[in-house]
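Quick start: what a row looks like.
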Amino acid sequence: MEAEASPFESSELVASLLASTPLLSESWRLCSVANAAAPLGFVSERIGDVGYFAFSACSIQMITEESEYYSTCRNLVPLDSAGAGDGDRPFSVLTKSSNSSINGEEDEGAVMVHAGLLNLFLFLRSSQAFKDQMSALINGSKSIVITGHSIGGTTASLCALWLLCYLQSVSSTLSVLCITFGSPLLGNESLSRAILRERWGGNFCHVVSKYDIMPRLLFAPLESCTRQLHFLLQYWQMSMLASSPGNFGQYFPVLQLGEEEKAHLFSFISHHNLLVSSVAQAEAREEKANILYWPFGNYMFCSQEGAICLENAASVIEMMHLMFMTGNPSCCIDDHLKYGHYVGKISSQFLNKKSFLQGEVIPESSYEAGVALALQSSGISKQEPAARPAEDCLKKASGMRHMRTPSLNAANLAIRLSKVVPYRAQIEWYMASCDKSDEQLGYYDSFKQRGSSKRDHKVNMNRLLLAGFWNDVLRMLENNELPHDFHKRSKWVNTSQFYKLLVEPLDIAEYYRSGMHRTKGHYLKHGRERRFEIFDRWWRERKVGPEENTSMRSKFAGLTQDSCFWAKVEEATEWLAHVRSESDARKLALLWENINNFERYATRLVDCKEVSKDVLAKNSSYSKWVEDLRELKSQMQQIHPQFPRFRDGA
């Protein structure tokens, strides 16, 4: 799948799409059906070209004892632990991106998710029913909506992440949208950042009602109120089952909390939501913060008066607190069961434009009017204490979204690109001068063995400046500051490819020159910057025009078409050294297999003229490797004439 599957530029478009189409109402209908089908855990249905897959809110007990779940309900585990035992890596795209840094800084931390809900999804995914139904939707739909209510919503989020990872791995263009209703949070801030990096934030819309306590639960340490939580979830699940027409008269919500316990739980969650909101604002100001759970995607907050949609995580957390504090102990529990009512209100109110109440002062600007209408839709009255901070929150969220448009950012990047082109030109000049040098080392080896001349220093500085520019490009892309199709635009795809082919050999040379391979391991597995891997993907997924054919080259390429060629030469050089000293027959056979495979690969590149002429320079690392291999095979033929396969490269 393409790296970014979302067609949305902002949460406002997501909200308009959901409110003006059947997506929201159909998703909730399927959630209700799934809640009534708790033993299975999910249902699926296809309506036209859209496939729906809904998870039940009543399925957590399928995989764990209640006492164990409630006592560890905030536990986080690394997402890459999923399938680690059997080699299955269902979320490898997300976990791989989180373990590498664009700016060369330390890792931001592992992607962590709720342990119980990860286990639940993996359990459901392993069933044959899941495989059959999901396969049918993938093969028979143009787009898939994954949905769920309550715990089923968080399971739906995990399912959507798995499906996005899978579709990207098979380069599918199938679109995916995840809609959740009153779902608890899923994971930490590293998860949110990983989703932004993949441009998947617009694929998620979390519908949260004004007072619902469930989406706010995981902001608080719940170990001290597991009994109340147990009764609460039991009450919700039995209420959902009882509300189904097919189950009428069979289930009754007999387990309820007393008024005193409700009040204690409401006060406890309110207090910790306030603390988390304060910390989130510190995070937004780039101060040090540490919050266990962090939102991602778009959040649609709904009330009796309408709905608002936010995408900035700090604003989402603050709005969760401000809307919740206007409620009371009873409505915060009952609101979790009223999403059908809110969905109907959202769809009907979209058809009737909002207006200011009679007697209200009309704002002077359209911006102020928009903020006022958003506050009205949140259901927070101007007379309530939460009104002023809620208005400030909406202004901050709006300011972050409209500070600079993605198209303007892209235009400014084009100007910045023109200013760094001279750095690239100077590196090209350096490459040409290396090809003409009497030392006949070639581009790669000249830089690897460079001295302290002004020219060498200048080239290295240009390499670092170009890396900084492209890191900024990727940072902006991952923060949704650039157009959604930026990575498909031919100008940027071609420019990034040229940069990679020109500069990555210098990065490889610097890696081995500084001895990093001795401490970290070889470049390909342990040293390659993530920007080059991203540019590889851009190039693979580009639209190939008819002018790009596969005819043979008549002369050597200006740049070697495999930007990692020199890293492979370095590994092959080490293999040759080990062959001379290895005595273990099995290891020796493996070394020769690797050597012969690389020899065939390199020979094909040279024969197809897909290498630049510096590769064949007399004193280049590759030329020396070819000579060493020829000499070693000759020696072995003299010692072991019964093994001609080594001489022939078989």
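That is the whole record. The CA atoms of residues 138 and 144 lie 8 Å apart. The longest strand covers residues 143-149.
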